[in-house]
Design brief:
heterotrimer, A alpha/beta, B alpha+beta, C alpha/beta, B: alpha+beta, Glutaredoxin, 4-stranded mixed β-sheet, 43% helix, C: alpha/beta, Rossmann fold, Ubiquitin-like (UB roll), 17 helices, 9 strands, 44% helix, binds flavin mononucleotide, binds iron/sulfur cluster, binds FE2/S2 (inorganic) cluster
């Protein structure tokens, strides 16, 4: 337990954490100290000089001296003046300086109204402009389809370059020139190479880097509904907020989760969600001749198929637990298959077995691991945000070294100097090169079989460089994927370490948002399910690759995007995507993550499970009144799969007061549909969400996905509340004696850069990733 | 290729030495030279360019065969460096930052050359000339020609 | 008057070679000390001598060395670095020492490195000092051949221009091949310096004093000054004086003696209006302060700083606004661009002063200028560059208030 330290701020006692610097402490305690260069994930460098406060030497000191709060350790009994005249003047002065060259183009700036620079300007009390000379200007660059560059807005806080190079290890972006001519960009025009470049949008305290697809589809922050959601583009399931207006998706932004994605997303996630607004959305149900069907006709069609007794259900690792479960119930357990290859099912089952047996690391634990072994494919390709966490672990300062030099961990530049390029032990073993090789102490290429053999040797041998590093570490992490055998071997290493009392943790490398959730249902590969005469029902799945269609009597697809399978199907039923419906995924940490209807369009398709439920009732498979709510369905599901029992706890408790779903300043509600109907429609209903759908609701600071606080209109307001979440994990209580899976046959899947849904995002297509 | 020291053995730490050596050989650091240096130093081009564009005496654009560094700091200013600059303009037609059409001379302002006791001063190539006036500039340029 | 640092230098630009240096007692201190005295004892002698850093800060050298962890406490590489960046306008003493008597510096390095147990030394010379670089390289070759360097490697690193490289932590980044951005202290370079290793950075003149202190003792060194402060000091004088140049005089010599006796007073037709006593980063002193002793404490008491001890003399025929504009332009241009006030504040000051010089100044500009020292003073910026710039602005605004007002009211520079 960390002890608090009491200090005096403007005469008032405040308790701060000793491992925070004074700025972080004050900001978290709700004291408004403005800043630009500090960032909780990147620490302090003291560059912007915005966080000036007075520090008094002792009770007798009346003069004090100006210090930067972000560079000042918190010490017991310290006396600080935020409201001292000299400090106020210094802070206002800095804002005046950085605004000297700022274009003041707020009306046409995408960040206007959610700009940290605007907030800080107001906070310092700066109101009038004195510089009267020509502003220095820059030529902005074309940085590719994701990020727009408006260099003239730059205030030189250096956050972008620190993020891009130090956090992500990017090498194609930097700071050029010197003095007043510092330029943050690329050496030449061209798409940013880092797969995390999109975070620049949130890292920049003003509008130098903006979300380009959003810019073309722009609304002010306060004019958008924002809903907490979960990224569907890989098994990490980063927390995001979906922002919409008028039933149209506008953008996805990071949603802080202290033990998962913290402050950053990957570009596949941020820009992949654009598939919602892409050209290949499947919005209406149709048959193979293009005839359009209404919802009730689609339900009737499905009911007929299920009533025939010949239905074969193909589930999906990207569909929700609810929809998979509903399909399984209707098709029958024996006729329900995973829309995956046998290889993929093997991988997922091995991962599940491993998670039941050994501890799984959260992403935050990965980022703080002190030794890492990666077995198999490139984590940065399969599950990009995991790759970033591994990178953070490799480059984070060594605690003992810092302690010896009396350098606090938040003192970023000093910590880097002290580390002098030294990396924490990371070992990468597998058949193909990975993005982490450059950081690795050892990156070994060997065949898939040899990798397994190597891993088993590490699990059993008491000596060797890798074993030594894992054995001397306090919190080592093993990441494994690509084949079931490798996952088994990786888990064995963790089990061996755990047996020696080391807090080792495992991360299975999985590709799809709900890989683990689906695996919990135990479905077999769809490889041979298309038997003659089968009436196939494929859920949110392009299963062409997983099963031949030829033999099937008919194919019905439920999906929200046009896939090759959908195009070849006899019948397509349009269902809602993760953003149109409520649902739940289980990520590669075993974290049960609910998501909520985020987009409220005119003709929203229902969730697949709702259509399936209605079809089931119509077919007489389900009694009338089955699953009136999603909670009811989940209750059924947990009866059947004990692994999934904790999911129920991940739902909001009924009856809790709901925070508003619209920002307080949401404008033009009445007018925005006036061209359709001058009567204002009632607010959309959304019974199970923890969020209301209007501006009204319980005030609950920090819970709002838009993250506003008095004086803090920008996303930076989130930096004020970095505390632990209350997420639910499936496998916290291990089954100690569960048998490990027998070692399955070799084969290896390296994964690709995008997955099924993000491949349909216009921005991802423009970037050339699809 | 570079002669002398083996920069690659020192890696990025040798960035400045390497750029200086290459510039001595080639006059300036072109994009191609920058890429070459980055390869020698085993570092990303953009990161090397961050370094190259920071310093005053690494030229990222072509300069003349003779670079004239004319001190523009306080003592030389006080003792008549403007007259030297005007005379150079009269003679060569170049203002600070410019290069003669024949590529012989580039004139650049430079911060205090640490020879204030001989102000005003300028540096042509590696040679310092002090106690100059307009006539002295004439003599210097005539001598060099 | 006793010459210590410059006694071998004839001023004609010829360097003292190894033989000549050895003849004058050179490298005697090395023989006397290396392997015979404990490193800590050498540190003690230097501490006792009262030697203060000559790079501009005046920090006691012995205390700086004492902060170096012992080799036993911190094994691994350790560095001793000589700061020969010398780009402070008005300063030219280090050039004189390096071109004239490079072995004196080398001997100082050998002793200092021994004292702080460093195994590698760097001399960071500004790149435009071609002659000094050549002199040092030749001297290192001679010293190596003569075997006086022991196991010490001395690298000469030629800089590629930027005043900020003289700031000791920016210098470290530059030596690492990076952009010369200063580092925050703490941690001190002694704890986490070059490549994160224990490191000492000292000015050329500071290091040149070391052989003499080791040879003749702390007592002797303290006796060289005329007041409380120790040693001789290399003063420089520039501007419209009769004999601009370098003068080695006892620490504490008065400004008047330096300017009138040694530099020969003002040239005919010119009167002394004010001086910057220690380079561009110090504040103006008026004629009435000419009797102030040139020492760290003396200059501080008079409201300025000793700085590098190289005096710039401003005469009555030079526009003080133009002079200050030149200084501010220098600082604005040489800002490294890391911290906001310096990067964006100094160019604004420069723009205002440039406008005044061309008759475009406004009354409101004066209020803006008056605000600046308070916003770019010590602690408000990341390093000492901007506070250094503010010294001449703050003192100049007061001392030359009428000149500023005239520029604004008459919309013209009277000296133009
Ligand atoms: C902007 C700036 C420029 C500096 N330039 C120099 C310089 O050129 N030479 C130098 O010796 N010290 C310079 N210094 C002082 C150094 O930071 C450092 O204090 C000095 O090298 C220490 O040596 P000393 O203790 O021997 O004086 C500069 C300081 C600042 C803030
Ligand atoms: S890491 Fe995966 S879950 Fe997270 S944002 Fe990227 S694609 Fe989405
Ligand atoms: S936040 Fe403290 S200096 Fe930038």
């Amino acid at each position: 337990m960390r002890m608090g330290i009491e200090i005096l701020v403007d005469g008032t006692a405040v308790t701060l954490r000793p491992d925070d610097n004074l700025l972080a402490g004050c900001v978290k305690a709700g004291i408004d100290v403005p800043y630009f260069c500090w960032h909780p994930a990147m620490g302090s460098v003291g560059a912007c000089r915005q966080c000036a406060v007075k520090l008094f030497a002792g009770p007798a000191d009346t003069v004090g001296k100006i210090v930067m709060a972000c560079m000042t350790p918190v010490t017991a009994g310290m006396r600080v003046g935020v409201a001292e005249a000299e400090a106020i003047a210094a802070r206002e002065g800095v804002v005046e300086f950085v605004l000297a060259n700022h274009p003041h183009d707020c009306p046409v700036c995408e960040v206007g109204g959610e700009c940290h620079l605007q907030d800080m300007t107001a906070m310092t009390g700066h109101v009038s402009r004195r510089p009267r000379f020509e502003k220095r200007t820059h030529r902005s660059q074309d940085l590719g389809p994701f990020v727009k560059h408006e260099m003239n807005r730059c205030i030189g806080c250096y956050r972008c370059v620190r993020f891009y190079q130090d956090v992500c290890g990017g090498t194609d972006f930097g700071v050029f020139g010197s003095a007043k001519n510092v330029f943050f960009g690329r050496a030449q025009d061209g798409a940013l190479e880092s797969p995390f470049a999109g975070n620049l949008v949130e890292v920049c305290p003003t509008g130098v880097f903006v979300d380009k697809p959003f810019s073309a589809n722009f609304r002010r922050k306060w004019d958008m509904r924002s809903t907490p959601s979960v990224c569907p583009h890989c098994a990490v399931g980063c927390n995001i907020s979906i922002q919409e207006r008028d039933g149209v998706f506008r953008r996805a932004v990071n949603r802080f989760n202290a033990s998962l994605n913290e402050y950053f997303l990957c570009d596949r996630g941020r820009f992949g969600v654009g598939f919602l607004q892409g050209p290949s959305r499947l919005r209406v149900s149709r048959d193979r001749y293009g005839k359009v069907f209404a919802r009730h006709a689609a339900v009737a069609h499905l009911a007929k198929i299920f009533a025939s007794g010949k239905a074969v259900g193909v589930g999906s690792a990207r569909a929700s637990l609810e929809s998979n479960f509903a399909l399984r119930r209707l098709a029958g357990a024996a006729r329900f298959y995973a829309g995956l290859t046998a290889h993929e099912v093997g991988v997922a089952q091995a991962a599940l077995a491993a998670m039941r047996r050994v501890s799984t690391a959260t992403l935050a634990q990965v980022a703080r691991a002190d030794a890492i072994l990666i077995l198999g494919p490139d984590p940065q390709v399969v599950a990009p945000r995991l790759g970033l966490a591994l990178r953070q672990a490799a480059t984070r300062p060594n605690d003992a070294l810092l302690a010896a030099r009396e350098i606090p961990a938040w003192h970023d530049a000093a910590a880097r100097t002290a580390m002098a390029g030294q990396k924490n032990p990371v070992f990468v073993v597998g058949p193909a090169p990975t993005a982490l090789d450059a950081l690795a102490r050892l990156a070994v290429r060997m065949t898939a079989e040899d990798t397994v053999a190597y891993a088993l040797e590490v699990a059993h041998s008491p000596a060797g460089e890798v074993t030594d590093a894992l054995l001397t570490a306090k919190t080592p992490v093993v990441v494994a994927g690509g084949s079931a055998a490798l996952i088994v071997a990786g888990a064995k290493i963790v089990a061996a370490l755990e047996a020696r009392g080391i807090k080792a943790r495992f991360v299975p490398l999985l590709a799809a948002a709900n890989s683990i959730g689906l695996a919990c249902m135990g479905a077999e590969s769809a490889g041979s399910c298309a038997t003659a005469g089968a009436q196939m029902v494929a859920l949110e799945n392009d299963f062409f690759g997983a099963a031949g269609l030829a033999a099937a009597a008919s194919v019905t697809v439920l999906d929200h995007i046009e896939t090759a399978t959908a195009q070849a199907a006899d019948f397509c039923v349009a269902v809602g995507s993760f953003a149109d419906t409520d649902g739940m995924f289980v990520n590669l940490e075993g974290r049960a993550q609910p998501f909520y209807k985020a987009i409220f369009g005119e003709n929203d398709a229902p969730a697949a499970w709702e259509i399936l439920r209605d079809a089931g009732i119509l077919a007489g498979i389900l009694p009338p009144g089955t699953w009136p709510t999603r909670a009811a369905l989940l209750a059924d599901m947990t009866q059947e799969f004990s692994d999934l029992a904790p999911c129920l706890r991940a739902l909001p408790a009924p009856g809790e007061p709901k925070p508003p779903g619209l920002p307080h300043r949401f404008s033009g509600r009445t007018a925005s549909r006036a061209h359709v109907d001058v009567r204002e429609a009632g607010p959309p209903m959304r019974a199970e969400s923890p969020f209301g759908t209007t501006m009204e609701g319980a005030a609950q600071h920090g819970a709002e996905p838009l993250v506003w606080a008095p004086g803090w209109n920008s996303g930076q307001a989130v930096l004020r509340m970095a505390e632990a979440d209350k997420d639910i994990f499936l496998f916290q209580d291990k089954i100690p004696d569960a048998l490990m899976m027998p070692e399955p046959p070799w084969s290896y899947d390296a994964g690709s850069g995008v997955e099924e849904m993000s491949a349909h995002s216009p921005a991802i297509i423009a970037r050339g990733w699809a | 290729m570079l002669t002398g020291e083996d920069f690659s053995a020192r890696g990025p730490a040798a960035a400045i030495d390497c750029l200086r050596a290459l510039q001595k050989e080639r006059g300036y650091i072109s994009d191609e030279t920058l890429a070459e240096a980055a390869a020698i130093l085993q570092m990303p081009v953009a990161v090397l360019d961050e370094v190259a564009t920071f310093y005053n005496l690494i030229f990222r654009e072509p300069v003349g065969k003779n670079v004239i560094l004319l001190c523009d700091s306080a003592v030389c200013w006080m003792l008549g460096r403007e007259a030297l600059q005007s005379r150079i303009f009269e003679r060569l037609g170049i203002a600070p930052g410019e290069t003669t059409a024949d590529g012989q001379y580039t004139l650049l302002p430079v911060v205090c050359l640490g020879a204030c006791d001989r102000a005003p001063v300028l540096l042509v190539g590696e040679t310092l000339h002090g106690h100059l006036d307009a006539a002295g500039v004439n003599k210097l340029l005539d001598g060099a020609a | 008057m006793q010459l210590v640092l410059t006694k071998n230098i004839d001023g004609g630009g010829k360097r003292v070679d190894f033989a000549a240096y050895a003849r004058s007692g050179g490298y005697e201190a090395v023989r006397k000390v290396v392997g015979k005295l404990a490193p800590a004892d050498v540190v003690q002698v230097v501490a006792d001598s009262g030697l203060a850093g000559c790079g501009g800060g005046g920090f006691p050298t012995g205390r700086k060395w004492q902060a170096m962890p012992s080799r036993a406490a911190r094994p691994g590489p350790r560095y001793f670095i000589v700061n020969a960046d010398e780009m402070e306008p008005g300063t030219f003493k280090d050039r004189y020492l390096m071109e004239g008597d490079p072995h004196q510096l080398l001997e100082g390095i050998v002793l200092a490195a021994y004292a702080v147990e460093a195994d590698e030394a760097y001399i960071f010379v500004r790149g435009e000092y071609f002659q000094a670089i050549a002199a040092l390289e030749a001297a290192i070759a001679e010293a190596q051949a003569a075997g006086v360097l022991g196991g010490l490697t001395i690298h000469v690193h030629a800089g590629v221009g930027r005043y900020i490289c003289g700031e000791e932590t920016a210098l470290l980044n530059s030596l690492e091949g990076k952009r010369a951005i200063p580092r925050a202290k703490p941690p001190l370079p002694q704890v986490s310096g070059l490549f994160g290793c224990p490191t000492i950075v000292n000015n050329v003149e500071t290091v040149c004093n070391v052989p003499h202190i080791v040879r003749h003792g702390a007592e002797w060194f303290r006796g060289l000054g005329v007041g409380d402060e120790a040693g001789t000091k290399i003063f420089g004088v520039s501007g419209r004086v009769n004999r601009p140049g370098v003068y080695e005089l006892p620490m504490g010599t008065s400004l008047r003696v330096l300017i009138e006796e040694f530099a020969g007073g003002m040239r005919d037709g010119f009167q002394l209006r004010a001086v910057l006593p220690g380079g561009a980063s110090t504040g103006f002193l008026g004629v009435e302060k000419l009797d102030t002793p040139m020492s760290v404490a003396g200059m501080a008491a008079a409201g300025s700083r000793l700085g590098t001890g190289n005096v710039m003399v401003l005469d009555d025929k030079t526009c003080p606004v133009g002079f200050i504009r030149n200084l501010q332009h220098f600082f604005a241009q040489e800002s490294c661009g890391w911290c906001a006030p310096c990067r964006d504040g100094l160019p604004w000051v420069d723009q205002i002063l440039a406008a005044m010089e061309t008759g475009q100044g406004r009354q409101s500009d004066l209020a803006v200028l008056a605000d600046m020292p308070g916003r770019m003073g010590p602690g408000k910026t990341f390093c000492g560059l901007a506070p250094g710039a503010m010294a001449s602005l703050e003192t100049g605004l007061k001392m030359f208030a009428q000149d500023f007002t005239r520029h604004v009211q008459e919309r013209v520079c009277a000296w133009a």
